[in-house]
Design a protein that fits this description.
Layout lengths: L10 H52 L13 H5 L6 H6 L12 H4 L25 E4 L22 E5 L16 E4 L11 H7 L4 E2 L15 E2 L12 E3 L3 E3 L8 E6 L4 E5 L4 H8 L12
Parallel strand pairs: 1-5, 3-6
Antiparallel strand pairs: 1-2, 2-8, 3-4, 6-7, 8-9
């Protein structure tokens, strides 16, 4: 009785199949990555829309926008929690104590999905603080500010209220201008300009990596920014004692997301001119936005 021969793959055929599968995976991965990036961008846009809605609802109740930071260093976000479906967290805050007081330890450690850009791989800058991915325009949200909607004479649809940025990575070495910034003293503010941080960063001096470490903190580069640098500017941000300085919004790609004072959200190209970007940041400067907006 003859045995029936069974057909089988030769080693060469098997290698060909493996090679084809590898090629297909190589072709699919970029497409999958693009889908993930698009989904993350959509989620971040939704976050900004929810925060923007909270700002407008707050204004409708109190007739002013929340202050960017108060004397206890509480952020605008702290005041907006009830308007972002976080009333329970808001009730835990002791606004009579400072943000770093033990009385606020539990609530400042909370993390909220609406405050985090899902495309940023850095989770928490400090394990004891809940982070944020969104900074408020400190020309509108500043120390004890009481900005009125009517005071935005350049038009609410032409003025940035809040922007998306990458968080710091906690490092104190100058490795990535998107993650670290130059930390100077409050007294240095009067001499600080767009070029100030360049030499410090090059020499690896006065480097901090705690940008956006705490949603509760309204100080500069924690809760606020001023856009004196264009998005993804190659020059580093500078904070002078958390009061002010120079800063940009930071992203992985050529787009940053910005929430406008009318509640809308838009993508802004990092190639936007400094003139147009400055005009979009000022609430009552009288400038005309350029064609690149």
């Amino acid at each position: 009785m003859q045995r029936q021969k069974r057909s089988a793959f030769t080693l060469f055929q098997l290698l060909v199949v493996i090679a084809i599968i590898a090629i297909l995976i190589g072709l699919l991965l970029p497409a999958v990555q693009k889908v993930r990036e698009a989904a993350a961008r959509t989620q971040s846009m939704n976050n900004l829309k929810q925060i923007n809605l909270g700002i407008l609802n707050y204004e409708s109740v109190y007739r002013v926008f929340p202050s960017g930071v108060d004397d206890k260093h509480f952020s605008a976000t702290s005041r907006l929690l009830p308007f972002m479906e976080q009333q329970n967290a808001y009730n835990l805050i002791n606004f009579k104590k400072s943000i770093d007081d033990d009385a606020n330890a539990k609530v400042r450690g909370l993390s909220f999905k609406v405050l985090v850009n899902p495309s940023d791989f850095v989770d928490r800058v400090n394990p004891e603080w809940g982070p944020t991915s969104y900074l408020f325009n400190d020309l509108i949200f500043y120390l004890n500010s009481k900005t009125k909607l009517a005071g935005i004479t350049d038009g609410t649809s032409n003025t940035v209220a809040i922007g998306e940025t990458l968080k710091g990575d906690g490092k104190k070495q100058a490795t990535d201008v998107r993650r670290q910034y130059v930390s100077l003293k409050k007294e240095d503010l009067k001499n600080t300009g767009p070029e100030t941080g360049v030499k410090y960063f090059k020499d690896d001096k006065n480097i901090a990596g705690d940008r956006c470490a705490s949603w509760m903190d309204g100080r500069f580069l924690q809760g606020t920014f001023n856009g004196k640098l264009r998005p993804n500017d190659e020059r580093p941000d500078v904070s002078c004692g958390g009061v002010s300085g120079v800063s940009a919004l930071r992203s992985y790609n050529r787009i940053v997301l910005a929430g406008l004072c009318d509640g809308s959200v838009r993508s802004v190209s990092t190639t936007v001119s400094h003139t147009t970007w400055k005009a979009a940041m000022t609430p009552n400067g009288g400038e005309i936005l350029g064609a690149d907006w």
